[in-house]
């Protein structure tokens, strides 16, 4: 029988997806986690707690190129983020998934009921993959996932406690100006590191409309509004949307 691979991200939704998948598919389930090296320290305990709750081991995948974290990727590749997504996601997540997956796997991702359109879009852009959107299918929302973990007394990762809507690497290049100013407050050392990387590789996250670079070490502290910015997505489908928009077959 084919494997059912749950792509656990140390997020609340993928934790609940893993629990439901193991309950439904049993021993066919394989839970895989791509360790980027750049996530909050609290994720380690969360992974252990979820592993115990789910009742199945989490297989930790590490990149084979020697990258220590997302900053290491930026320095070695001289690239941050562009029309095809973020280089860190490609090197620290996508390549690991490509190496790990088998042709007949059924993939389970932590997309919730409020992300049905995103799930449909993923399927259209990845027709070669068999997927089970188990949270969408069971009408489970992101709030449901956080509530369930609270009921089960599983301590959520630190970024959730600080009010971030995701649990990605600390300092995500797909975040807006408001997000980065929030990082400046909560994790000043990460902000300084990213500002240093920008200068080292001569590539900034932000630009003005005329193409002029906006460097983090010069960005005003009141720039942006994190609460009003779009949610950050750092899933294994990173870049699919922009690829589709720029595809010769895309409408318009």
Describe the model.
By secondary structure, this protein is of the alpha/beta class. It has two domains: 4-67 and 82-163, Rossmann fold (3-Layer(aba) Sandwich); 177-228, no CATH class. Helix content is 42%, strand content 11%. It has eleven helices and nine strands. The chain has helices at residues 12-25, 42-54, 70-77, 87-100, 116-125, 134-137, 142-151, 158-161, 177-186, 188-201, 240-245, and strands at 4-8, 29-34, 58-61, 81-82, 85-86, 106-108, 130-131, 206-207, 213-214. A five-stranded parallel β-sheet has the order 3-2-1-6-7. A two-stranded antiparallel ribbon has the order 4-5. A hairpin with a 5-residue loop joins strand 8 (206-207) and strand 9. Helix 3 crosses helix 4 and helix 9 packs across helix 10. The N and C termini lie far apart (42 Å). Residues 236-252 have low confidence and may be disordered.
Q: How many helical stretches?
A: 11
From the 3D structure, determine the CATH topology of the largest domain. Rossmann fold
Strand portion: 5-15%
For the biggest β-sheet, the strand order reads: 3-2-1-6-7
Tally of extended strands?
9
Instruction: Categorize the overall geometry.
Output: globular
Termini Cα gap: 42 Å
The SS-based structural class is alpha/beta
The CATH class of the largest domain: Alpha Beta
- Unreliable stretches (pLDDT < 50, length at least 5) are 236-252
Total domain count: 2
Radius of gyration: 18 Å
CATH superfamily of the largest domain: HUPs
Percent of residues in helical segments?
40-55%
